[in-house]
Amino acid sequence: MKLKTKTMEWSGDSLKLLDQRKLPFIEEYVECKTHEEVAHAIKEMIVRGAPAIGVTAAFGYVLGLRDYKTGSLTDWMKQVKETLARTRPTAVNLFWALNRMEKVFFENVDRENLFEILENEALKMAYEDIEVNKAIGKNGAQLIKDGSTILTHCNAGALATVDYGTALGVIRAAMESGKRIRVFADETRPYLQGARLTVWELMKDGIEVYVITDNMAGWLMKKGLIDAVVVGADRIALNGDTANKIGTYSLAVLAKRNNIPFYVAAPVSTIDPTIKSGEEIPIEERRPEEVTHCGGNRIAPEGVKVLNPAFDVTENTLITAIITEKGVIRPPFEENIKKILGV
Ligand code: MRU
């Protein structure tokens, strides 16, 4: 079995990833033939977005088995998992996907067709992701009124998943159900996922989109130009606190102040049942050049000190609802999340 979407292609012996660093100007694929190349692609953000990172790592794990040469296979696969896990710390889907692959590995370690078994699991995960996003879209579309303008942050679209997207999946599903929707996309400094990726994929689909700078959102809300905020998530704690791209927290505060619903759209696999509150979510710190430079050009004086947390945490009290494939979760979040997870 094979897989081919815009974001990724699995041919049976390599994984091709759309190089998201080069969008929107160049559409080019990077071919990963080893698990190390896959780890590099995740770390360097050739591929990004929580669900896409998870599925990519799963294919990396499959390639890791093929990279095995001698010695203990079990030790080798532990090392493969470690290499893939050490790439990005915040999106829990990465660890969720690797744990799922490892479980299948241990259950079938003596089987001759172990490669096919692991490959099938990664493919299953990839196809499931598309189905899950469509279900998130369907559940979320019911919350969106005809004629709405939706603000989104970062890119939680087809590019951040195997296909269709989570937050952008809600927008797509609302439109497929006949509603007229307009999108405001935050440019999302410093990495510009909004300006470069969200705008690119929505324009390709013919969806009306305006790019705005991050600091415009508050004013546009105050002027009554935004009806709902819909964002994705990288990790959701048991109490509903949500880690997502830096800037999400500010939007949630602004939305509360302006009485605008703030929705998080994410698969259940983004909920981390081992984490009680947002305080415990590890936040990735990325390199200073992402802040001191824009489009390859330096914009701040050389030698300046830099902070660059890639994510922030929005506390549950600022979230109207979490839209998952299993339904819309509303407060009290802890109680309702536990119900959905069955824990
Ligand atoms: O640093 P990135 O681009 O991987 O961050 C992506 C986000 O924050 C997304 O909103 C999140 O992963 C959800 S993607 C469906």
UniProtKB/TrEMBL annotation:
Fetch the SUPFAM superfamilies from UniProt.
NagB/RpiA/CoA transferase-like
What are the entry keywords? Amino-acid biosynthesis, Initiation factor, Isomerase, Methionine biosynthesis, Protein biosynthesis
- Residues forming the catalytic site: D234
Quick one: which pathway? Amino-acid biosynthesis; L-methionine biosynthesis via salvage pathway; L-methionine from S-methyl-5-thio-alpha-D-ribose 1-phosphate: step 1/6
Give binding positions for substrate: R48, G49, A50, R88, Q193, N244, K245
Q: Which organism is it from?
A: Thermotoga petrophila (strain ATCC BAA-489 / DSM 13996 / JCM 10882 / RKU-10)
Lineage runs: Bacteria, Thermotogati, Thermotogota, Thermotogae, Thermotogales
| UniProt family annotation | Belongs to the EIF-2B alpha/beta/delta subunits family. MtnA subfamily.
Q: Name one Pfam family in it.
A: IF-2B
What does it do? Catalyzes the interconversion of methylthioribose-1-phosphate (MTR-1-P) into methylthioribulose-1-phosphate (MTRu-1-P).
Question: What is the protein's name according to its record?
Answer: Methylthioribose-1-phosphate isomerase
The EC number on file is: 5.3.1.23
